[in-house]
Structures are given as structure tokens and as C-alpha cells.
Amino acid sequence: MSALETNLLLSTWKTALHQQDYRVTQPRLQVMEIIAASNTPLTPQDIYHRSLDQETPPGIASVYRTLEMLEDLGLIQQIHQPGGCHSYWPTLEGHQHLLICTDCGHLRVIEGNEEISEYISKVEEITGYQVTEHWLQLFGLCSGCSN
Amino acid sequence: MSALETNLLLSTWKTALHQQDYRVTQPRLQVMEIIAASNTPLTPQDIYHRSLDQETPPGIASVYRTLEMLEDLGLIQQIHQPGGCHSYWPTLEGHQHLLICTDCGHLRVIEGNEEISEYISKVEEITGYQVTEHWLQLFGLCSGCSN
DNA sequence: TTGATAATGATAATTATTATCAATAAGGAA
DNA sequence: TTCCTTATTGATAATAATTATCATTATCAA
């Protein structure tokens, strides 16, 4: 993410913590900064290892606790990777879908999903299920990596 | 799955093992039977625990080894559950999508995906990505559980 | 039926996650 | 600013999940 987007996210998150009476602590800030600055989804271990070159890195337990808190607040969401999940990425506005480059890992957000909504309505009609949630990810090669 | 479908799957899988020079062993059979007979995705631990009421259950290591083999052969695939993955389900014909009941865990296969194909083509046009794979799951309540 | 060897079980090692609890630091009140 | 309450932390133990090791066993082609 760009430095601008990173900082915007961070201030949004800090405000959210204050509003919900969560303290904005050093370890939490460190974790949030790493997530907000990354351009790929990260696992708890990823985040922990990235933090280790800092003066006073957060304990591994705080990494897990911070991720749980951020997810509870709806600020991050799990991203399911083929072959392993428990990676996190900032929550997006509305419902958007993700396109992940299988080579460089870069993640891109897709806008607009009329087709998907139609599809879901059809599925509900046919099956009698009440679809409450869905989950679509596209994998492929970005223009840079397809060369 | 119905007993008929289960047996069809099992004989297909056994044939595949023979053709690829994998031995059809007792532990492998036990794991394959459990997967083929289940109507929900199962984790390695699920499978192991289900096997424990048998006379001579497979070792936990063999469960993992069998799952790896079946996945390598393309006979099963990972299913990503919200809040945890590493569940397995038999590979389906063509590309189909899954609808999972969040209450009873029952899994249903959705046929037809014209809308999704259209969506993907549009995404490719817009982004310049080359989409090689996609991954859609629907979650909701089946008619039985929505009462 | 036999023999080569792929595959197994038991278990140790590794890795990931969660729980515990005394010490610390955030942030509102004075 | 300083103090005080207490939410939060770090260190570490405990638990859970997965992988590696290796002597023994069982599959299956000859």
C-alpha cells in the first residue's frame, strides 16, 4: 500500500480503538503498522517475524491478541489462501472481491459484483438455501508477472 | 453422500492409485472410505477421530500421508472454511461451487456458473490479470436449518 | 509363494496457538 | 504534570497440530 493509504488506515484504526475503549498501545501500533503497510496478506507468524528488527518487538502473544481484536472490530478479515489460511488483510468497504497474483502475491481489489449477486439469487431460488455470506477469490498472474 | 456415490468414488480412487503405482493399503482405504462417506468436509483430525472406533485404526501419520497423496493425485481438494481451513472434500467434475450450511455443515454442490465466467472475463479485461483459478463458496442456512 | 521395497506405526521433534499471571504502561482524574 | 486504576503486556507453560525418523510390516509383481 502507498504511504498515504497506510497512514489513513492507521488513523482510522486508532480512532476505532479509542471509540471502543481499547487502549492504543505500543505493541498494537506495531502490529497495525505492519499490516497496514503490507501489500500482501500476512499470517500471525509473518507479522511477528517482521516485527523482530524493531527495538522492542511485541511478544508473540500480543500479535495474536491484536489480530483477534482487529478482527472482532471488523477492521481486518481472514483471507483464505489456496494451501493455507489465517492470513489477514484490512477490511474493505462494502463487499468486494480479491484477485491475488500467484507469483508475486500482490493483491488487488475488484469493484462491482452484479454478476455475483445474480448468481447468488439464482442459487437461493434453486436450492432453497438462505445465503448469508459468500466468499470469492480469483487467482492469476498480474500483468507484471505474466512476462 | 449416498452409498452408491461413495462406492463409485472409492472404486475410481482405487483405480487411480493402481494406475499411478501407489499401493492400495488398509490405512489408505480406511481414510478414503471416511472421506467418501462423509457429507461434510473433514479435517485430518476429524478423519483420525472417526477412524478410532475401527478395529485397527490407521496411525495419525498415515492419515496425513494419505491426504497428501490424494491431493497430489487431484482426488481431493482443500475446502476453505470461514475461520479455519485444511478440510478436504472429494474433487468435483468440472468446476463447481459449494454451498455450505453454517448450522449443520452440510455441503451442497452448485451446477452452472455462466454468471461467474462472465464476471471473470470482465475482471480480466479491467485488470489485465490472467485469471487461472477461482474460488467461490457460499455460506448460509439450508431449508432444514432455517426453521 | 516369495522377495523387494513401499508404506506403516510409534514416537520424537517441530511448529502454531492459547492460557496463565506477575509486572507494566495507557490514559482519565486531580 | 503526576497519580491511580486497571487494561494490557511479556515470558513462559500448556496445548494442539503437523512433520520427521526409522525399524517393522504388508503389498503386489514375478
Descriptive keywords:
homodimer; 147 residues; alpha+beta; two-stranded antiparallel ribbon; DNA-binding
Helix-strand blueprint:
Two copies of one chain form a homodimer.
Chain A: H1 3-19, H2 26-37, H3 44-51, H4 60-72, E1 76-81, E2 84-90, E3 97-101, E4 107-110, H5 114-127, E5 130-141
Parallel strand pairs in A: 3-5
Antiparallel strand pairs in A: 1-2, 3-4
Chain A binds a DNA duplex (30 and 30 nucleotides) through helix 2 and helix 4.
What does this structure look like?
Two copies of one chain form a homodimer. Chain A has helices at 3-19, 26-37, 44-51, 60-72, 114-127; strands at 76-81, 84-90, 97-101, 107-110, 130-141. Chain A is of the alpha+beta class. In chain A, a hairpin with a 2-residue loop joins strand 1 (76-81) and strand 2 (84-90). Chain A is 44% helix and 23% strand. Chain A has five helices and five strands, in the order H-H-H-H-E-E-E-E-H-E. In chain A, strands 4-3-5 form a three-stranded mixed beta sheet, covered by helices on one side. The A-B interface holds A 78, 80, 82-86, 99, 101-102, 108, 110, 113, 115-116, 118-120, 122-124, 126-143, 146 and B 78, 80, 82-86, 99, 101-102, 108, 110, 113, 115-116, 118-120, 122-124, 126-143, 146. Chain A binds a DNA duplex (30 and 30 nucleotides) through residues 21-28, 43-45, 58-62, 64-65, 86.
